[in-house]
Design goal:
- Strands 1, 2, 3, 4, 6, 7, 8, 9 and 11 form a nine-stranded mixed beta sheet that branches. Strands 5-10 form a two-stranded parallel sheet.
- The chain folds into two domains: 2-100 and 237-268, 3-Layer(aba) Sandwich (D-Maltodextrin-Binding Protein, domain 2), CATH 3.40.190; 102-228, D-Maltodextrin-Binding Protein, domain 2, CATH 3.40.190.10.
- The chain has twelve helices and eleven strands.
- The longest helix has 18 residues, at 2-19.
- By secondary structure, it is α/β, with parallel strands linked by helices.
Length: 276
């Protein structure tokens, strides 16, 4: 009897700690914002811990499926194949849109181009345009810095432009790595979440405003008024997916994100509030 009694005493604190930890995994676009929200949340909810890690939207959804995450951060909507996997496990999935993001296309600050239209972006990222000469007058090979295929950002850009990425695009691990690559490569172009531009070092790079029609004004992903009006071509909702059975556990954190304090953190971090 003593053996089993001691064993339970060791286990109970571990189980208690597990129940007070909310595990969030997924989108690299959301990871820095999630960390800031988690830190502020813990200041007013000292008994609850929030663990944050990135790895991409696909990884987050897979982690939610296999039970190693309570919340999946995703910069894209869940796809039908993923929904089927949850249904096979008998798990009901709910979602929460807690912020908006805008994709920024960045180049070196000395590249002679100040804006770009969506047709030209499609040509660049698909590999149809291989040289900057027709767009800038400079005879330079275009180098593309993007994300891996499990990234929600990669998926979002591909679908918005209706393209497949050229196989020669360099697949980077995250937004910060893309920005560093563009600073070093004066013939490069990359795409990152706008929040990474506004809250990182922008020395050596510039953000290209985007337009669709030649008669339209090019819109910057850093223009909060245009984002609020839903006018920027590459703006999107940021999702958090969770199992319905876990709602009571994660509700305090979701409520914090929706609060005035949470929304202020979202805006100060370079993201945008949800359009009501």
């Amino acid at each position: 009897m003593k053996y089993y009694f001691c064993y339970l005493i060791v286990l109970l604190p571990a189980c208690s700690q597990e129940n007070k930890t909310i595990k969030i995994k997924g989108s690299d676009t959301e990871v820095n914002l999630a960390v800031q929200l988690a830190e502020s949340f813990h200041e007013v909810n000292a008994g609850v811990f929030v663990s944050i890690s990135g790895g991409g939207s696909g990884l987050g959804i897979a982690s939610l499926l296999n039970g190693t995450a309570d919340v999946a951060n995703s910069s894209r909507s869940i796809n039908s194949g993923e929904i089927n996997l949850f249904e096979k496990k008998g798990a009901k999935i709910d979602s929460f849109i807690f912020a908006q993001d805008a994709i920024a296309f960045v180049v070196a600050d000395d590249l002679p181009i100040d804006s770009v239209n969506t047709d030209d972006l499609a040509g660049i990222l698909s590999g149809r345009y291989k040289n900057w000469s027709s767009l800038t007058g400079k005879n330079m090979i275009i180098n593309i810095y993007g994300r891996q295929s499990n990234s929600g950002t990669h998926d979002f850009v591909k679908k918005k432009l209706g393209i497949e990425f050229t196989p020669y695009a360099k697949q980077m691990n995250g937004n910060a790595q893309i920005l560093e690559a563009i600073k070093a490569d004066h013939s490069g172009i990359g795409y990152v979440g706008a929040g990474y531009v506004t809250h990182g070092s922008s020395t050596g790079i510039k953000v290209l405003p985007v337009y669709q029609d030649k008669n339209e004004k090019a819109i910057s992903p850093l223009d909060a008024n245009m984002i609020a009006a839903g006018k920027y071509f590459f703006q999107r909702p940021l999702y958090q997916y969770y199992k319905a059975a876990s709602f009571d556990k994660i509700k305090p954190f979701l409520d914090f994100e929706k609060s005035d304090t949470g929304q202020k953190i979202i805006q100060l971090a370079g993201y945008y509030p949800v359009i009501k």
